[in-house]
């Protein structure tokens, strides 16, 4: 059956199930090998401009056939030669017979291999950054909308003093803002490997240009500029330092930790029925329990985030074992760890954008939870009010302590509602402040500066960060579940 073969072998779900087309293409064979050909064209153009015997016809021939890759021939050549770069040199030369003598002139395999990796890393960040910006934007709108809605805060996952739904979202946002800055810095710090030769000494190019060091430097500069980089690394071995991979993947792993935390919070809040992620009209939460609304998007994010977090171990170990000018035991590992990190981050951000575009808040449930806990939290306010009305603090403290324990017993041992307020109202001791009780128990008096913090954080930290991405904000994400 046509197409059946693809189901007879493992396919990475990162591509077949989750990743966006643009990120899947960024690490595709077509992107990789067409980039190799572009790099060979850049090299030939720069060498010609600096005086080597390369003709316009040769360069035109290379440009004309840059996209025409015979993958079957390349695979056959690689099987024969056991060398992927030379296989593609031969494949390119086959359709560019005039240019064949000058393709890859003076270069080593890492000229195309490493420089292409750096281009893919750069382009990968350029795909991720607008997606992260959109997540931040959606969450910022959410935080602004709910900046003043009181909700129970939790420490140790136990009820604590109140915060607001918007302020809690700002805790998520702050981590994402840090990730945004880290990814942008990692992207901007990337340099080009450039034209460095087999051990990074540029010896082959110094020979080509008959000892003219200035031309060697200019060749490096010209090719770097044509590839779209502002700078090249001044020193390399055969490869660029594998610490560059650590820098890139550590920031992606850090993003993974952020997303795992956010989506775990959403899952906890979904259990409390305070907040839910989007849920499609015909979506099934459980095959056995029709009433369930499982937070599957957040669970997907957590699942993939764990994979993203652990991938940083690969470049850390790879960088530590690169012997002298390089060792080839980095190659197979990097073919997996670099693309998977970006593909995983891409999926996570797309999913999180979908979540943040449709978060549902249930204020009545939040209010009910506050009512259950607030009387305990208000005891200090009640004591202060009684003291102002002429009462003795120690006597009031003892009264409140006894009533609180009685109310707690109703909640914990009998499964009843918190009736501390009713007990206070029934006790004649508290008669002087009965008219103040409603004001003393107003949730908005317990949220401190939370609304102001939200407004200031969004205006000073978040919105300015999003300015460069304004033109890319309108993209919405529809997930295939």
Would you mind describing this structure in some detail?
The protein contains 20 helices and four strands. It is mostly helical and 481 residues long. It has a two-stranded antiparallel ribbon. Strands 3-4 form a two-stranded antiparallel sheet. A hairpin with a 2-residue loop joins strand 1 (150-155) and strand 2. The longest helix is centred in the N-terminal third of the chain and has 37 residues, at 109-145.
Keywords:
481 residues; mainly alpha; two-stranded antiparallel ribbon; two-stranded antiparallel sheet; 20 helices
> Helix content range of the residues, please?
55-70%
Oligomer: single chain
What is the terminal-to-terminal distance? Answer: 27 Å
What is the averaged pLDDT score? 92
Along the chain, the helix and strand elements come as HHHHHHHEEHHHHEHHHEHHHHHH
Q: Which percent band covers the strand fraction?
A: under 5%
Strand order of the largest sheet: 1-2
């Amino acid at each position: 059956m046509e197409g059946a073969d693809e189901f007879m072998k493992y396919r990475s779900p990162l591509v077949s199930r989750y990743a966006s087309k643009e990120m899947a293409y960024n690490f595709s064979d077509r992107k990789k090998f067409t980039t190799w050909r572009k790099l060979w064209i850049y090299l030939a153009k720069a060498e010609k401009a600096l005086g080597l015997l390369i003709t316009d016809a040769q360069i035109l021939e290379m440009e004309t056939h840059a996209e025409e890759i015979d993958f079957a021939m390349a695979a056959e050549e690689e099987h024969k030669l056991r060398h992927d770069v030379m296989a593609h040199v031969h494949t390119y030369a086959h359709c560019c017979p005039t240019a064949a003598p000058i393709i890859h002139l003076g270069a080593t395999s890492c000229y195309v291999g490493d420089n292409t990796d750096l281009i893919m890393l750069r382009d990968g960040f350029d795909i991720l950054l607008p997606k992260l910006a959109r997540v931040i934007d959606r969450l910022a709108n959410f935080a602004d909308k709910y900046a003043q809605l009181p909700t129970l805060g939790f420490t140790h996952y136990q009820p604590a003093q109140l915060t607001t739904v918007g302020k809690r979202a700002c805790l998520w946002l702050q981590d994402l803002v840090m990730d945004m800055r880290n990814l942008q810095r990692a992207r901007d710090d990337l340099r080009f490997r450039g034209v460095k030769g087999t051990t990074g000494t540029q010896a082959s190019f110094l020979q080509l240009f008959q000892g003219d060091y200035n031309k060697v430097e200019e060749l490096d500069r010209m090719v770097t500029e044509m590839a779209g980089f502002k700078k090249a690394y001044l020193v390399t071995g055969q490869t660029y330092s594998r610490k560059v991979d650590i820098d890139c993947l550590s920031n992606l792993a850090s993003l993974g930790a952020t997303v795992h935390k956010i989506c775990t919070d959403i899952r906890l809040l979904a259990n409390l029925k305070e907040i839910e992620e989007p849920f499609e009209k015909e979506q099934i939460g459980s095959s056995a329990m029709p009433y369930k609304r499982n937070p599957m998007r957040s669970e997907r994010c957590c699942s993939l985030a764990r994979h993203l977090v652990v991938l940083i171990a690969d470049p850390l170990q790879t960088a530590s074992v690169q012997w002298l000018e390089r060792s080839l035991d980095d190659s197979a590992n990097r073919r997996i760890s670099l693309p998977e990190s970006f593909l995983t981050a891409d999926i996570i951000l797309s999913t999180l954008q979908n979540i943040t575009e449709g978060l549902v808040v249930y204020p009545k449930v939040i209010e009910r939870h506050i009512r259950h806990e607030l009387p305990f939290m208000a005891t200090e306010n009640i004591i202060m009010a009684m003291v102002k009305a002429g009462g003795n603090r120690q006597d009031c403290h003892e009264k409140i302590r006894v009533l609180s324990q009685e109310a707690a017993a109703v909640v914990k041992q009998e499964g009843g509602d918190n009736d501390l307020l009713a007990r206070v109202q029934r006790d004649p001791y508290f008669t002087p402040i009965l008219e103040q009780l409603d004001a003393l128990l107003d949730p908005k008096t317990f949220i401190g500066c939370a609304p102001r913090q939200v407004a200031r954080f969004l205006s000073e930290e978040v919105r300015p960060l999003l300015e460069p991405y304004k033109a890319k904000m309108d993209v919405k994400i529809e997930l295939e579940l």
